[in-house]
Amino acid sequence: MQQDQAKGPAIELINVSRRFVSPTGKSLTALRDFNMTVERGEFVAVVGPTGCGKSTTLNLVTGLNKPSAGEVRLMGGPVDGIDPRVGFVFQTDALFPWKNVIDNVMAGPLFRGKSKAEAESTAKDWLARVGLTRFLHHYPHQLSGGMRKRVSLAQTFINEPEILLMDEPFSALDVQTRTVMHEELLKLWAERQASVVFVTHDLEEAVALADKVYVLTAGPATVKSVYKIDLPRPRVVSEIRYEQSFIDYCKTIWEDLRQEVETSYRRASEAA
Amino acid sequence: MSITTLETGVAPIFRAGTSDAEIEAAALKLITRRKQLVLFWQIAILVITIALWELTSRLNIIDPFFYSSPSSIASRLYEWATEGTTEGSLWYNLWVTMEEALIGFFAGSITGVLVGVGLGRNRFLADIFSVYIKAINSIPRVVLAPIFIMIMGLGLASKVALAFIMVFFVVFANAFQGVREADRNMIANARILGASDWQVTREVIVPSAMSWIFASLHVSFGFAIIGAIVGEFVGARYGIGQLISIAKGTFDAAGMFAAIILVMIVTLIAEFIMTMVENRLAKWRPQQHMDAQ
Question: What pTM was computed for the model?
Answer without folding.
Answer: 0.81
